[in-house]
Design a protein that fits this description.
The protein is an alpha/beta fold and 393 residues long. It is built from 14 helices and 13 strands.
Length: 393
């Protein structure tokens, strides 16, 4: 192994919300406990990114900066080589984050009272983007198979056919359930949305974090007509643990959609620049850090296998769902016989486990936990010991 995936930097008193939560329960640096909640990694940032940032600090002025041609071409080359998508530099608009983007997109491409469709349970800011903008949630519940989830396409088409449904936000790979949608599933989605004139916003922020044996398909890469009816939201933040540098790449192939979004966001953000270090970090990540990402994925996959094996052997009342993509393992804890509030209390006060509680992703998530497993394996093993002791008393 070339990189250090064993050490950790405890982020107490650094402004990290998930680490600050630990202090509320009396946990400090002396304890071998870390949070498993908010979706950033507990891995050291790749040294190639650190070196690029140091070089920028040593040799540049921290003034205003736009994305350079080299930056845009580097992003497109990553999409081409990693995802087999021939993206174009002129399609890219930068935002501070994918969440910023889909909030703005909902506001730009729908009106108050319009329907916005989600596959639920799903990443909770998507609900907020709909509610905050006074749009109507159109909920298409995923079908729980017991080990995974699938799309109810009859329900999906019925709701897409409603003239009030204007927009569909696709989470691909899906957070929190860990699905990597197949090409066949995406084709069905694309065909239905074209048929009923529903614009597709594809949040692909986890697109690089694909477990062995699975393949991510960029929605816009499937078909030209799909590309012209979609906005693809990406960022290096999840893949390389640089979310704090607030740089994302939003691809809009259709010229009219591109212009409309560009003009609309200037009403609230007249000078939409990312920061210069974010640009440099993204460029370095996509140029030099593919091997770091591959090693990180191997650690995540190892962690997943350890958890799955342990639960099957020691706590079979908890079911781990198949993890195809992301580093977020979805656990069904209903077999413990606890309410979701009792489960949360048990985790925090007895097991000293700090997950993202499933209920924040929608009603279907009650008594589920989302476990961020992008961390050194030793902390996974320690957490499992605490889990067994607390859950099997």
């Amino acid at each position: 192994m070339k990189y250090n995936f064993e050490s950790i930097h405890k982020r107490f008193n650094t402004g990290s919300g998930k680490w600050d939560e630990l202090t509320k329960f009396g946990i400090d640096e002396s304890e071998n406990i870390i949070p498993f909640s908010v979706a950033d990694m507990e891995f050291f940032t790749a040294p190639e990114i650190i070196d690029a940032l140091k070089n920028e600090l040593d040799n540049s002025i921290m003034g205003y900066a736009n994305p350079t041609r080299e930056y845009l071409e580097t992003v497109c080359n990553w999409m081409r080589t990693r995802h087999n998508w021939d993206a174009k530099p002129e399609w890219i608009l930068n935002t501070h984050g994918v969440v910023d983007a889909f909030f703005e997109i909902v506001k730009t491409f729908t009106r108050e009272g319009d329907g916005v469709m989600l596959l639920t349970p799903v990443y909770y800011p998507m609900y907020i983007a709909i509610e905050f903008n006074k749009r109507v949630l159109v909920e298409c519940e995923l079908i729980d198979t017991g080990t995974s989830y699938k799309i109810d396409f009859d329900d999906f088409e019925r709701k897409a056919a409603d003239p009030n449904t204007k927009l569909f936000i696709l989470c691909s790979p899906h957070n929190p359930v860990g699905r990597v949608w197949t090409r066949e599933e995406l084709i069905k989605i694309g065909e239905i949305c074209l048929k009923y004139n529903v614009l597709v916003i594809s949040d692909e922020i986890h697109n690089d974090l694909i477990m062995p044996g699975y393949t991510h398909t960029v929605f816009a890469a499937i078909d030209k007509d799909f590309a012209l009816n979609s906005i693809i939201c990406t960022a290096p933040s999840k893949s390389f643990n640089i979310a704090g540098l607030q740089t994302s790449n939003i691809f809009i192939p259709d010229e009219k959609l591109h212009r409309k979004y560009f003009n609309a966001r200037r009403l609230t953000n007249p000078n939409p620049k990312c920061n210069i270090l974010g640009y440099r970090a993204c460029e370095a990540a996509y140029k030099f850090c593919g091997k770091w990402l591959d090693e990180a994925i191997n650690i995540i996959d190892t962690n997943k296998k350890i958890i799955v094996d342990f639960l099957a052997r020691e706590i079979p009342s908890i079911k781990a769902y198949d993890l195809e993509g992301t580093y977020l393992l979805w656990l069904d804890c209903r077999g413990l016989g606890l309410s979701y509030s009792e489960l949360e209390k048990l985790n925090h006060t007895q097991a000293k486990l700090f997950f993202d509680e499933g209920y924040i992703f929608g009603k279907q998530g009650e008594c589920f936990e989302r476990w961020n497993i992008a961390c050194p394996t030793s902390y996974i093993n320690d957490a499992l010991k605490r889990m067994k002791e607390a859950y099997t008393r």
